[in-house]
Amino acid sequence: MNFLRFLFRRHPWPTVVLAVGLVALVWFGGRFVSEVLYFADPAHREQQLAGWMSPRYVAKSWELPPDVVANIMQLSPGHRHTTLDQVAASQNVTIKELQKRVEAAKAALEAERRGGRQGELPAGGQTND
């Protein structure tokens, strides 16, 4: 404790910057580890869509890039704190339709990753039914 007091008296600004940096490291590191552990559980992968979910949650659960999810759900760049209920209501579609879009995007992305460009990612929420 005496060392910290000495350090703060002798070099106040670098000590404050170091303390803020350590707090940020613990905060963001904790969130990162928490998300990694949460989505490592098979029960949280490729979950059926529910109204409470956010597009970010869907992207993580289905292992899709966020821009792909934003594209298939026709979201504007400032779609912060949007739930799937709100997305469905704004587009006059059901959660099941959004589920179909996500499944089609996942299938297209997996086909693309396997080497072929067999299926294009659905744009604007159109599915190949």
Could you characterize the architecture of this molecule?
This protein has helices spanning 2-10, 12-40, 55-61, 66-72, 84-91, 95-113. The protein has 129 residues and is mainly alpha-helical. It has two domains: 1-40; 45-129. Helix 1 (2-10) crosses helix 2 and helix 3 (55-61) crosses helix 4 (66-72). The model has no long low-confidence stretch (mean pLDDT 86).
Give the topology, please:
Layout: H1 2-10, H2 12-40, H3 55-61, H4 66-72, H5 84-91, H6 95-113
Helix pairs in contact: 1-2, 3-4
Can you describe this structure in just a few lines?
By secondary structure, the chain is mostly helical.
**What is the count of β-strands?**
0
Beta-strand residue percentage: under 5%
* Rounded Rg: 21 Å
Structural class: mainly alpha
Coarse shape: elongated
N-to-C span: 67 Å
**Contiguous runs where pLDDT drops below 50 for at least 5 residues:** none
What does the average pLDDT come to?
86
Tags for this entry?
single chain; 2 domains; 6 helices; 61% helix
